[in-house]
From TrEMBL:
Residues 421-658 form the Nidogen G2 beta-barrel domain. Pfam families: cEGF (PF12662), EGF_3 (PF12947), EGF_CA (PF07645), FXa_inhibition (PF14670), G2F (PF07474), Ldl_recept_b (PF00058), NIDO (PF06119), Thyroglobulin_1 (PF00086). Disulfide bonds join 878-885. It is found in: Secreted, Extracellular space, Extracellular matrix, Basement membrane. GO terms for molecular function: calcium ion binding; Wnt receptor activity; Wnt-protein binding. Residues 701-743, 748-791, 792-828 form the EGF-like domain. The lineage of its organism: Eukaryota, Metazoa, Chordata, Craniata, Vertebrata. Its main location: secreted. This is Nidogen 1. The gene is NID1. It comes from Phasianus colchicus (Common pheasant). Residues 1-32 form the signal peptide.
Length: 1236
């Protein structure tokens, strides 16, 4: 461990750089390094001594730091992720504890270790203008109205630091490293702290503590130094930003300052509190995952249209032991999706000042993770009215606001439904349940749950489908799976509230069921997410555990029961023991019965508004009465059904009391769309629900659209619905930001199609539409320029032909011709003959000289090497007399471990296909693709698209293009002429296509396939090419799947990616053979096959050819590199290194886009400057496969097959100098003519 020095250190000012030079700095962290301020030894930084508990000497500050209202003139930097305002104690005294007595700023306080080269800690004070400007820009992102001009910054960088590892501890942490930075900016009157967390900069979130046997999560926050008196110590205030793994994991993709990974706080001014930044703009590049979205509140649909509002409450709690010091507020923000779509007009959360109390705020980011800090805030109706239902009023209170439903509606104010109207509940169920003693669980997911509730009877009908018969009967006793819906809409006795009135249908429920007897346990987790845009309550259910077996065909009876619900702050609990009777199927005319029982314990958690005391008028303990219970399993339909009647009221022993009123027992005769109003004794009255009209016994729907013709305004249509209505804009109009007014849609202009672009003439340039009204101009191959003005490239000046050939330049191209006396194609010329390959030479020697003897494990006879039609070695070489066979590489060398005995050909190729996913069949219609250029990528059973704007991914426009859940889609190709997407499926196997204008997909090839993976499309010749890693061949066919022909069925072990260059007539593919990976090429007719790259390859998975730059690029999961080359020139260029597990790759503009299995993301790389610049992670996390670019317009150029199929009767296959007419395999008859 390092020790502190007694000698103060005064840091000098860092070197000055002009603004443009900052962009050229080699930042020290490869991933999102541009987030960090410049640092390192070359910037004049001091570095901490390596160690487990090192700390610097006092860093004397030129400008005092304002911290909790006090001036701090020196700081101490420590290994363990803190900057101390007083000399820190030994780590055993403070790690795992917060606050700390010496006072600290903690961007990541944990037991860190930099011994043995495991990272560095750099620090300096800097007052150079460029660094001050960078810090100021971050601060203005979070405090746009602050007039702050820093005079000095302290920059502390923890670079690639490791967690402390004791002997024998978690080896998974061994290679993980964290990089983060704290920037403290000060002026004469105030100071700000900036915490910077680059993407992938935090690879671990906890560290083992020497004081504790387990891992302790890191702590992010601020701690004021304690005040020491004669006999006691008064702790200072403190602020916690994050102190659990989920919170810390999300630091890099969240922000309070408008940019991912950036957190800004005012830490000292005239105030003695910490003030967090307000999000002043949409977070950049933030894509919440599907799991993240499930944690946010579901929107509801306004009567005025389809605007989504995410209602959330402001809640608070007071710590009784520190009542004068700590109040905890929860201030949820609008989810990021709201900012991105229609709620940018809502003001950012405003925090007006109030009394000088220290307030601990819990802020929910878009992932649902809580970030805590202290501030002085208060929420009012003025900027939070949207959090209330449109059928509610908002009322301000001294410490916040509350929502309450208006008369005629029930709920908690955030969610309100019409009294008495039937309700519908929809959701999904998944589970993993063991039945009886069966060691194999029954698993199911994506199972539908539907429920219908007659509110004025409190009767809930629930159906779950499809549940396998092996489990269905055994779930019959668990009626309370649907019983929670009955509690939500139970009939309310006077002064009592059902679940919806308390929670608004937004809560989580965790239930533990323990079956008495064999002690089986089942855990049920349910999440209710409020009312969706269709007016239905949404629910998700998960079940895991073991249940006793109920015999198939048995019936279950459950007697009426009561259950006590105990409510406290935001939590409701209940527990009970329930009995059920099982009647087994008759055997020999006798049906035996037995009784079972289970203990039921549940906890319901929800947000409540604490400011309005009248909302807490319901008693703390209420009794739910459940009767008329009906349970059934239909084995033919595999549907599980529950039905029950529910009422909520006081604790009762069942004797006659007010609960006998017909409104509470459900024995009234009110219409199902009416409210039953209890009177005295057995008296009651019926009143039609809002949206209905009648005497209560019979209620009719009110047609608001007919009675109020102008209710929706102009350019809108009104659709009547039971009890309500909905407004929808007519074609050509959309809702404005207010969610009510329909305004005209501004249509984009495709200047490329309209001919109003500024590109050069079509013979020299191409206009590429990029979405909206934007386009780019690119010169055609053979021309150079900016696309608006293109000049012919004289290839003859570049020495493209052989020295013994003549070069003839033509507009956009050139040709080579060997001189007299030489033979060849102009690129290779030989005097009077043809150069023989090594294989041909060895074969000629063997045949001509009587042969040579090869010494291997045993002596063998004469061996004659086998060469293919191009003179290359056949990959599988066999001895003619002994029958021994072995695999060879390109140079004819035997590959170790492949020799096999006589009569057995070695497996010089792999036929293992990826795993096949099985899922339910859904209607696989494609969704019409919007105009513009898009990325299309495969994700197992679906194809998704991401629109491109210029070189940027428009991630908020990403969505699934096609769903085929029972298929495993690997390769994707796009036909830019017919706007069709093609894909390979290894589960069928099959090759299919679908129009991007919408409609059902069509399978074009389904026979004689093994494991089709890569697919490429020649839009000029109208052919498709694909690789088959099981049959080890490459094939070609017409776009409709007819006229199949095998191009290659030799020399392939694991062929995967394949791309075409239609203009030049070339074909390229990868083979990830573990013994000899390679990238090969040939003409599109299969001739001139040759290996292009074979050295320094590992697992070349993905391949792409950019038609505009003529660059061939690939991703390699073995070398973890993305590389490019010009196929016509020597040399390769490494674009990026250290990527994780790439699979597919495509190109557009200056960017390359690859899919990554480890990150489950599409990653964008700027190939010009060799840096990653963006990534997109779909909502549903799973492996991504092939990726391609769907161009708005086809790339320019033509080949000899473009017009009239090149004059061919069947397949027209382009070559660099012409085309080949080829017949399909197994052609019968004489109507097909082959010619070159």
């Amino acid at each position: 461990a390092g020790t502190s020095s007694d000698r103060p250190v005064r840091m000098g000012v860092g070197p000055r750089f002009p603004p443009c030079a900052l962009l050229a700095l080699a930042l020290p962290f490869a991933l999102s390094a541009e987030l960090l301020l410049p640092h390192g030894a070359d910037r004049g930084d001091a570095a901490l001594e390596p160690g487990d508990d090192a700390r610097s000497a006092a860093l004397e500050l030129g400008t005092a730091l304002r911290f909790y209202g006090a001036a701090v003139r020196s700081l101490y930097v420590a290994t363990n992720g803190i900057i101390a305002v007083n000399e820190p104690k030994n780590e055993e005294k403070y790690l795992g504890q917060f606050p700390v007595s010496f006072g600290a700023i903690a961007p990541f306080m944990a037991d860190l270790d930099t011994t043995d080269g495991r990272g560095n800690v750099y620090y300096r004070e800097d007052s150079s203008s460029d660094v001050l400007q960078l810090a100021s820009d971050y601060i203005k992102g979070g405090f746009p109205e602050a007039a702050f001009d820093p005079s000095s910054v302290v920059i502390v960088t923890w670079k690639l630091v490791a967690p402390y590892q004791g002997s024998g501890e978690d080896l998974s942490l061994e290679e993980k490293r964290n990089t983060f930075q704290a920037v403290l900016a000060s002026s004469d009157s105030s100071s700000y702290a900036i915490f910077l967390y680059p993407e992938d900069g935090l690879q671990f979130y906890s560290a083992y503590s020497k004081n504790d046997d387990g891992k302790v999560p890191a702590m992010v926050g601020f701690s004021q130094a304690s005040t020491n008196y004669y006999f006691w110590e008064n702790p200072g205030s403190y602020n916690v930003i994050a102190n659990d793994e989920d919170s810390i994991r999300n630091l890099h993709k969240s922000s309070n300052a408008g940019r991912q990974g950036v957190w800004v706080f005012e830490i000292g001014s005239s105030s003695d509190t910490i003030v967090p930044a307000k999000v002043s703009s949409v977070l950049t590049s933030l894509e919440p995952s599907e799991e993240d979205q499930e944690l946010t509140s579901k929107p509801f649909m306004s009567d005025y249209g389809s605007t989504e509002i995410r209602p959330q409450y402001v809640t608070s709690s007071t710590d009784s032991t520190e009542e004068d010091q700590h109040v905890t507020y929860s201030v949820p923000q609008l989810a990021v999706e709201d900012f991105i779509t229609s709620y940018q007009d809502f003001p950012a959360q405003q925090f007006p000042p109030q009394g000088p109390q220290v307030i601990d705020v819990e802020e929910f980011d878009e992932t649902g993770i809580v970030f805590r800090y202290h501030t002085d805030v208060q929420q009012t109706c003025a900027n939070n009215r949207h959090q209330c239902s449109v059928h509610a009023i908002c009322k301000d209170y001294p410490n916040g606001f509350c929502c309450s439903c208006i008369a005629g509606y029930k709920g908690n104010g955030r969610q309100c439904v019409a009294e008495g109207s039937p309700q519908r509940v929809n959701g999904k169920v998944k589970g993993r349940i063991f039945v009886g003693n069966n060691p194999v669980p029954v698993t199911f997911e994506n199972t539908d749950l539907h429920s219908y509730v007659v509110m004025n009877h409190g009767r809930a009908y629930t159906a779950i489908s499809t549940i396998p018969e092996a489990l269905g009967y055994s779930l019959l006793p668990l009626a309370s799976i649907g019983g929670v819906i009955g509690w939500m809409f139970a009939v309310e006795q006077q002064g009592y509230k059902n679940g919806f009135s308390i929670t608004g249908g937004e809560f989580t429920r965790q239930t533990e069921v323990t079956f008495l007897g064999n002690n089986e346990k089942l855990i049920i987790k349910q999440k209710f997410s409020g009312i969706d845009e269709h007016g239905h309550l949404t629910i998700s259910t998960e079940m895991e555990g073991r249940v006793p077996e109920v015999p198939s065909g048995a019936s279950v009876h459950i007697e009426p029961y009561t259950e006590l619900y105990h409510a406290s702050s935001s939590v409701i609990t209940s527990s009970s023991t329930r009995e059920y009777t099982v009647t087994e199927p008759e055997r020999d005319g006798v049906a035996s019965t037995y009784t079972g029982a289970y203990q039921w314990r549940q906890t319901i958690s929800f947000d409540e508004c604490i400011h309005d005391d009248t909302l807490h008028a319901a008693p703390a303990t209420q009794q739910l009465s459940v009767d008329s219970i009906f349970v059934l399993y239909n084995r033919d339909e595999q549907i599980l059904r529950y039905a029950m009647s529910n009422s909520i009221g006081p604790i009762s022993d069942g004797s006659a009391d007010i609960s006998r009123n017909p409104c509470y027992t459900g024995t009234h005769n009110c219409d199902t769309n009416a409210v039953c109003r209890a009177g005295t004794g057995n008296r009651f009255s019926c009143e039609c629900s809002i949206g209905f009209r009648g005497d209560g016994n019979v209620c009719y729907d009110i047609d608001e659209c007919s009675e109020q013709p102008g209710v929706c305004g102009s350019n809108a249509v009104c659709n009547n619905q039971p009890g309500t209505y909905r407004c929808e804009c007519v074609d050509g109009y959309q809702f404005a930001a207010d969610g009510r007014t329909c305004v005209a849609v501004e249509y984009a202009v495709n200047h490329c199609q309209a001919g109003t672009h500024g590109c050069d003439i079509p013979q020299r340039a191409q206009c590429v539409y990029t979405g909206g009204s934007a386009y780019i101009c690119t010169c055609l191959p053979g021309f150079s320029g900016d696309g608006r003005a293109c000049e012919d490239i004289d290839e003859c000046q570049q020495g493209r032909c052989h020295p013994d050939a003549f070069c003839y330049n033509t507009p956009g191209s050139f040709s080579c011709q060997c001189k007299a006396g030489y033979r060849g194609d102009g690129f290779q010329c030989v005097l009077g003959g043809v150069v023989k390959t090594k294989c041909q030479h060895e074969k000629e020697v063997a045949l001509g000289s009587g042969g040579t003897f090869f010494q291997r494990e045993i002596r063998v006879g004469q061996f004659i090497p086998q060469c293919d039609e191009h003179g290359n070695y056949v990959p599988t070489q066999c001895h003619g007399s002994t029958g021994y066979c072995w695999c060879v590489d390109r140079d004819g060398n035997e590959i170790d471990g492949t020799r096999s005995g006589p009569g057995v050909r070695p497996p010089c190729l792999s036929t293992a296909a990826p795993p096949v996913g099985i899922g339910p069949s859904v209607r696989p219609d494609t969704i019409p693709l919007p105009p513009g250029t898009h990325l299309l990528f495969a994700q197992s059973g679906k194809i998704e698209h991401v629109p491109l704007e210029g070189n940027n991914m428009k991630k908020n426009g990403a969505k699934a293009l096609l769903h085929i859940p029972d298929k495993v889609i690997i390769g994707v190709a796009y036909d830019c002429m017919d706007k069709m997407v093609y894909w390979t499926d290894i589960s069928g196997p099959s090759i299919s296509r679908a129009s991007l204008h919408g409609g059902e997909p069509t399978t074009i090839i389904r026979t004689d396939l093994g494991s089709p993976e890569g697919i490429a499309l020649d839009h000029l010749g109208r052919n498709i090419f694909w690789t088959d890693s099981q049959l080890d061949r490459i094939e070609v066919a017409r776009l409709d799947g007819r006229q199949r022909r095998i191009l290659f069925d030799t020399g392939l072990v694991n062929p995967r990616a394949i791309v075409v260059d239609p203009v030049r007539g070339n074909l390229y593919w990868t083979d990830w053979n573990r013994e000899a990976p390679k990238i090969e090429t040939s003409y599109m007719d299969g001739t001139n096959r040759r290996i292009l790259v074979k050295d320094d390859l590992g697992l070349p998975n993905g391949l792409t050819f950019d038609p505009y730059s003529s660059m061939l690029c690939w991703v390699d999961a073995g070398t973890k590199r993305l590389e490019c080359m010009n196929p016509n020139q020597l040399g390769r260029r490494k674009i990026v290194e250290g990527i994780q597990y790439p699979f597919g790759v495509t190109s557009y503009g200056k960017n390359l886009y690859y899919t990554d299995w480890r990150r489950d993301a599409v990653v964008a790389v700027d190939r010009m400057v060799s840096v990653e610049n963006d990534n997109f992670q779909p909502h549903k996390r799973s492996r991504l496969y092939g990726i391609t670019t769907a161009f708005a317009q086809c790339p320019g150029g033509h080949n000899y097959c473009t017009v009239n199929n090149g004059g061919c009767t069947h397949l027209c296959l382009a070559t660099p100098e012409g085309r080949s007419c080829r017949c399909p395999d197994n052609t019968v008859g004489v109507d097909c003519i082959e010619r070159n």
